[in-house]
From TrEMBL:
This is NADH-quinone oxidoreductase subunit N. The gene is nuoN. NDH-1 shuttles electrons from NADH, via FMN and iron-sulfur (Fe-S) centers, to quinones in the respiratory chain. The immediate electron acceptor for the enzyme in this species is believed to be ubiquinone. Couples the redox reaction to proton translocation (for every two electrons transferred, four hydrogen ions are translocated across the cytoplasmic membrane), and thus conserves the redox energy in a proton gradient. It is a multi-pass membrane protein. Keywords: Cell membrane, Membrane, NAD, Quinone, Translocase, Transmembrane, Transmembrane helix, Transport, Ubiquinone. It comes from Campylobacter insulaenigrae. Its main location: membrane. Belongs to the complex I subunit 2 family. It comes from the Bacteria. NDH-1 is composed of 14 different subunits. Subunits NuoA, H, J, K, L, M, N constitute the membrane sector of the complex. It catalyses: a quinone + NADH + 5 H(+)(in) = a quinol + NAD(+) + 4 H(+)(out). Residues 123-417 form the NADH:quinone oxidoreductase/Mrp antiporter transmembrane domain.
């Protein structure tokens, strides 16, 4: 008979997350009793995130092996470690590059949100995922509204309303899973004898609602355009990358559990195809760059959803090297996209307006900035030899291997349509004439981050492909 001991809880695996909760509470209490500068809160938040990486290396050792804590409620596996590194690194990038004055409440909420996102990717228990998802979402709604403009508040309320509906679907899906398996752990669902039960198909469709909302997949994307337009450009860069990588890991876990017997991948494939085609067409008629990039984000999220379906199919076909290569391609694609997206929105933050006309004559006034924006746009568009192209090429190869030829055709059509929307920005920058350009200058640390983003978006994909 085994004796229960505290050491069996493996409490040290939780220290990276608990450290962020500690710093969040400390900053919140500090803001009550003292008045300190924004640079102080930014520095402490960056230190807290760097400490998270340090603790991850000390107690996880960045080991590519599974470990668990609290009887399996918290796990540390490849998905969790890779996602945590991406979440923390790009959160640090955001804090460094954002120079706008913020309320002191922003930083505790930000650290709380990051801790919840890390918890979300580090569990296979549906209740823990649900609590972490809602905790991070509530913090994100508040952070969007803290800008206190009419557009920011209205977009935050719209996001909250739509996501609340998605949370209800998630709760119903959890209930259906428990009804059939008597467990809320996705690992138990993989080995369940009820995996073919049609009720689990209904659960999968309900999961798809919250997935569509959080990944901004059409027709669940209506909140996205308002958030992109209402939030500050640098915060939009964060929203479009960090919360989505957490949701991508959740999707991988859920689809891996349901994909073996429920066979609802055709529903997901049709949704992904519909989303990427509709979003790319609507992007053509937008008169605002940030709104166009919102629909661009929808297409990229649709690519990821289609890639996940093919990867799950490869896993159940052979579970070998092809699946590992497909997962690597997915992470590569999102990392390169994150670099390019951060750099582009950092450049957009210099403009007082985001209409296409505000970019007219930019090359005559700021030629270096114009060339950087052009390179980043070409990278996001997937033009060779830039990084996103290689990531997309590897994803298309994995989709072809899994046999979803229609998805490959849809991605090609969507990419061609989106290319016209991207090139519209370049036309205004290089060929339109205007004397009304109004823009700000980059600070030193913003220039450093912009250089990192440019190098990352141009070189990461090529390096990984050659390697």
């Amino acid at each position: 008979m085994s004796v229960f001991g505290v050491e069996k809880l493996n409490f040290v695996l939780l220290w990276p997350i608990l450290s962020l909760f500690f710093w969040a509470v400390a900053l919140l209490l500090l803001s009550i009793f003292t008045k300190l500068s924004r640079n102080f809160y930014t520095s402490v938040s960056v230190i807290a995130l760097l400490g998270n990486l340090l603790l991850l290396g000390m107690f996880n050792g960045f080991k590519l092996s599974d470990a668990g804590a609290f009887f399996g409620l918290f796990i540390s596996d490849n998905y969790a470690i890779f996602a945590q590194i991406i979440i923390v690194v790009f959160s640090i990038f955001y804090l460094i590059m954002d120079m706008k004055e913020k309320k002191v409440e922003f930083f505790p909420l930000f650290l709380f949100m990051i801790a919840c996102l890390i918890l979300m990717v580090s569990s296979t228990n549906l209740i823990v995922i649900f609590l972490a998802l809602e905790g991070s979402s509530l913090a994100l709604y508040t952070l969007i509204a803290l800008r206190r403009t009419h557009n920011a508040i209205s977009s935050s309320i719209k996001y909250f309303t739509i996501a609340a509906v998605g949370a209800g679907f998630f709760a119903f899906a959890c209930a259906f899973v428990y009804l059939n398996t008597k467990s809320l752990d996705l690992l138990d669902l993989v080995n369940s004898e009820h995996i073919s039960n049609p009720i689990l198909l209904s659960a999968g469709v309900m999961f798809l609602v919250i997935i569509g909302i959080k990944l901004s997949i059409a027709p669940f994307h209506f909140w996205l355009k308002d958030v992109y337009y209402g939030a500050h450009a640098t915060f939009v860069a964060f929203i479009s990358v960090v919360p989505k990588i957490a949701m991508i890991i959740v999707v991988l876990r859920i689809f891996s559990a349901l994909g073996g017997g429920v066979k609802f991948e055709y529903i997901v494939a049709l949704l992904a195809i519909f989303s990427m085609l509709i979003a790319s067409i609507v992007a053509l008629v937008q008169n605002d760059v940030k709104k166009m990039l919102a629909y661009s984000s929808v297409t990229h999220s649709s690519f990821i959803l289609a890639a996940i379906i093919s990867e799950i199919n490869l896993n159940f076909q052979d579970g070998g090297i092809l699946y590992l290569m497909a997962i690597s391609a997915l992470f590569l694609y999102w990392i390169v996209f994150a670099f390019a997206n951060y750099g582009l929105f950092l450049a957009l933050s210099l403009f007082k307006e985001s209409s296409y006309e505000s970019f007219a004559g930019l090359f005559n006034k700021r030629p270096v900035l114009s060339i950087i924006i052009a390179l980043l746009i070409l990278c996001i568009a997937g033009i060779p030899p830039f990084g996103v192209f290689w990531g997309k090429l590897l994803i298309l190869a994995s989709i072809l291997t899994s046999g979803y030829y229609i998805i490959v055709f849809a991605i090609a059509i969507s990419s061609m349509i989106m290319l016209y929307a991207y090139l519209k920005i370049l036309i205004y920058i290089f060929f339109k004439k205007s004397d009304c350009f109004q823009g700000e200058q980059l600070y030193l640390r913003q220039k450093i981050i912009l250089c990192f983003c440019l190098i990352g978006s141009l070189c990461t994909g090529i390096f990984a492909f050659v390697k």
